[in-house]
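Contributing new records

If you add data, match the layout below exactly. Sequence lines come first and carry their own label; structure lines follow with theirs. Keep one chain per record. Anything else will be rejected by the validation script.
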Amino acid sequence: MNKGGLWIVILVVISIIGISYSQLSLDLAPRVYSSCITPPAYPQMITQSGTICPGTYPYGIGIGADNVKVTCLSAISATIFTGNTWTGKNGLTISGRNNITVEGCWFREFDDNGIFIGNTTAYTSQINLLNVSSDGNNESGIFVGHNVINININGSDLYYNKDGITFKANYFGPVTAIANLFPRGIVLANNRIFYNYENGINFDAFDYYAYLPTAPFILNNSVQIIGNTIEDNDKNGIQNIGFTTSDWYTNNGYSYILNNKIQYNGGILFNGSGIAIIANKSDRIINDPAFGFAIADFNYIVSNDLLGNVGDGISLHLPQIDNTNPIIFNREFMLKADNIFANYILWNGRHGVSVT
């Protein structure tokens, strides 16, 4: 039997016993992924776990069931979702679902957000975004909205968006089961957040205030921002407008900014800082006689490199009050940065730490 005949026999045997080519010990050809899936375009939903076939998909996707893990094989061949020719809004939508993991996928050039997470009528919880990329989107690389509880964003690249990551809610009223609460239980670790047109990370609670002395439930209220590189964003590296973990109805967490590189933020249009903490609220909240209250804080800012930012390394800012009209009730503004130590703060354009 010649060598060509031997190869013919081997191929026949393989076809009879049903062994896939990728299972052979001899690495004779590129691997064929016979078990990967082609996801449907949103508003159709992915409803079970699976690996998405490598390639470029000209649409966004959504997760429509609990306990789903979606994996993109980015280490072998990129799996990219693009929105530049699609009429939809977001690259990935996760809304009202629990225990979702998305790993290795790339979302770019969508009209709104690369990734949208949140729901106004149900909780979205236990969300893990691992090693994802999101760039070139008109709004945020990742937008996290109402009623999101326990979200972990790890090892991801977020760049050339308006904001790298935005956390936002616009609720004003009592805490109930559907109160549209601000996102909480946040972990951001080992991400690269750079070249965004405004903020690297934006905690936007400007139009948010929820109140009740005792809540009917306990939520993880902590924020952990650890080991990220946040650099070259045109406004602030991290911006906090009216956000606090001390909301007195969950009382179950602190905010930590630890071991990050926050550098070279601020640009031509914005005199941005490494970390900006701004105690301000919208008119409907601050001008309500029953409240008239604004607080912004981060509890621990420790062991960060705050280098070369256009404005300050750390800026704490109180708003200017309009005194043209008579003040008929007291308004209270509070800034807190409880523990700032062991940071390397150097070469910033204005101050290392400022309070204005």
